């Protein structure tokens, strides 16, 4: 399988997931449908489905238009999330096939929105899987708790997503990595992996390049929200549990003016 990222709006990412043997493709959060179609056409792809991570307009706002542009396209979205233009509602554990070799597994990862879905995608056996995390998991951070709680985000990040294979590539919904890593460094100033990744991310952005994908393993080493099980992190924050620590980090990040 192949994955193309398409920068949209100010800092959003849409994606094309490609089954290489059939050239069939799925679009993730195609907020600017014309741009997505242009990319699909340039690679000779047939758009078959849309995978919507959550109901916010900058992710679901292109669904109605893409249905006009690609008659018969299937639009998937979380059953709880009232996604605009949705034709097929998915629950945790639902599977969707793309082409000959690609399987998409819906994972319910609520908090940012109650019905938020992350899509875990596998291809041929020798290919690393990928997960499209929308606004639940960012590189070195997580989404704001607009509709949920620290308990939910803990479950979404540190149970659901953390249980995926370590080599799983992480494709998130926004390019926020530099700021996120700068904040992460305020919590763990001596974390060498965060320092290295920040330098790398700054170089990428200066060169006009994206900072995706990350990996689940990378996030467990550099993302403070996925490190709250560590006693030293809890201690530094003055917290007694992983969930309390996660809530405290989110509060600090919401008020951080880096």
Structural summary, described in words:
By secondary structure, the chain is α/β, with parallel strands linked by helices. It has helices spanning 33-42, 57-60, 63-69, 150-161, 177-187, 192-206, 216-222, 231-237, 242-255; strands spanning 2-8, 12-19, 24-28, 46-51, 74-78, 88-90, 95-98, 102-108, 117-122, 130-134, 137-138, 141-142, 169-172, 214-215. Helices cover 34% and strands 26% of the residues. It is globular and about 55 Å long. The N and C termini lie far apart (38 Å).
Cα Rg: 18 Å
* Main pleated-sheet profile: 6 strands, mixed
Average pLDDT works out at: 98
Which bin fits the share of residues in helices? 25-40%
User: Which ranges are low-confidence, i.e. pLDDT below 50, for 5 or more consecutive residues?
Assistant: none
**Total E-strand runs:** 14
Order of the strands making up the biggest sheet: 1-2-3-4-5-6
- Approximately what portion of the residues adopt beta-strand conformation? 25-35%
Based on secondary structure, the structural category is alpha/beta
Count, helices = 9
Distance between the termini: 38 Å
Oligomer: single chain
Identify the overall geometry. globular
- The H-and-E topology, N to C, reads as EEEHEHHEEEEEEEEHEHHEHHH
Summarize this structure briefly:
This protein has 258 residues and is of the alpha/beta class. It has helices at 33-42, 57-60, 63-69, 150-161, 177-187, 192-206, 216-222, 231-237, 242-255; strands at residues 2-8, 12-19, 24-28, 46-51, 74-78, 88-90, 95-98, 102-108, 117-122, 130-134, 137-138, 141-142, 169-172, 214-215. The longest helix is centred in the last third of the chain and has 15 residues, at 192-206.
């Amino acid at each position: 399988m192949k994955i193309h990222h398409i920068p949209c709006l100010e800092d959003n990412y849409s994606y094309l997931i490609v089954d290489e043997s059939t050239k069939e493709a799925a679009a993730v959060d195609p907020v600017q449908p014309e741009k997505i179609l242009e990319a699909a056409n340039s690679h000779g792809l047939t758009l078959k489905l849309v995978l919507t991570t959550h109901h916010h307009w900058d992710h679901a706002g292109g669904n109605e238009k893409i249905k006009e542009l690609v008659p018969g396209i299937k639009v998937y979205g979380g059953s709880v999330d009232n996604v605009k233009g949705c034709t097929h509602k998915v629950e945790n554990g639902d599977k969707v096939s793309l082409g000959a070799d690609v399987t998409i597994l819906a994972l319910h990862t609520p908090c940012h929105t109650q019905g938020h879905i992350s899509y875990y995608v596998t291809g041929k056996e020798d290919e690393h899987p990928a997960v499209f995390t929308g606004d639940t998991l960012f590189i070195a951070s997580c989404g704001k708790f607009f509709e949920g709680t620290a308990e939910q985000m803990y479950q979404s990040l540190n149970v659901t997503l953390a249980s995926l294979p370590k080599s799983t590539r992480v494709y998130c919904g926004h390019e926020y990595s530099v700021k996120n890593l700068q904040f992460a460094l305020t919590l763990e100033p001596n974390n060498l992996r965060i320092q290295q990744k920040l330098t790398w991310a700054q170089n990428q952005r200066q060169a006009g390049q994206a900072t995706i994908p990350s990996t689940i393993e990378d996030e467990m080493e550099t993302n403070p929200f996925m490190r709250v099980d560590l006693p030293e992190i809890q201690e530094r924050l003055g917290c007694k549990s992983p969930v309390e620590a996660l809530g405290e980090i989110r509060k600090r990040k919401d008020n951080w003016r880096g």
